Amino acid sequence: MEKNRVILVTGGSRSGKSKYAEEMLKNRDEVLYIATAIITDAEMENRIKKHIERRNEKWTTYEGFKDLDLVLESNKEDTIMLDCVTIMLTNLMFSTERDFDNMSLEEVEILYKQIENQFYKLISKAKELNKTLIMVTNEVGYGLVPEYKISRIFRDMAGSINQFIASLCDEVYLVACGLPVKLK
Questions:
Q1: Of 145, 136, 161, nearest to 14 (Cα)?
Q2: pLDDT tens across 43-56, in order?
Q3: What are phi and psi of 180, to 5 degrees?
Q4: All domains of the chain, ordered by start, with CATH?
Q5: So which residues are the catalytic ones?
Q6: Predicted local confidence at residue 2, as pLDDT
Q7: Which tens digits make up the pLDDT trace of 59-116?
Q8: What single string gives the DSSP state of each residue in 118-182?
Q9: Residue 53 in contact with residue 101, Cβ under 8 Å?
Q10: Is the pTM of this model over 0.90?
């Protein structure tokens, strides 16, 4: 892998995308790992624990999901791994109380632009500082149209954010069954 690249790794649940992204960094000890998950229940706590156990002990971990461009400015590592875009999106969606069932299309678009801006600032800052940034995300649009409005808003935002991020990346990989396919 070349230095100073922006890379997106996507795939379905349990597809091996995080493991693949970590493999890309197996020979690097100076990595800033941005963990966007928040412990909300025992299942999430267990998932986070498994990710921590698999992670290189020499990596620096930052737990958070907002204003990550500022985090890049204050860390010395030249390589960053963000896991995961979809959870970051979820946390940003719910960081303020909203009535998703009654949101207008205009309100949804405003929220989308705010979230898109968080990713734009992160990617722009990584490029500005000549850092390698690997982001892991989920493909969520392969299933049925969700029954509930909040789920449709999430699905649509996740798909649109993934497209937006991919357009700014140097490389994009789709992982299925633990096998990566280079898309870009």
A1: 136
A2: 877 877 777 777 77
A3: -90, 145
A4: 6-182 (3.40.50.300)
A5: 51
A6: 66
A7: 999 999 999 999 999 999 999 999 999 999 999 999 989 999 999 999 999 999 999 9
A8: HHHHHHHHHHHTT-EEEEEEE--TTSPPPSSHHHHHHHHHHHHHHHHHHHH-SEEEEEETTEEEE
A9: no
A10: yes
pLDDT at 3 over 80: no
CA 141/CA 106 separation, integer angstroms? 22
Query: Which of 93, 40, 44 lies closest to 66 in space, CA to CA?
Result: 93
Report CA-CA distances (Å) from 163 to 17, 22, 61, 119, 154.
Answer: 17, 22, 27, 12, 14
Q: Which two tokens stand for residue 75?
A: 């860390």
Token readout for 28 is 């690097």
Q: Which residue has 């000890």 as its token pair?
A: 29
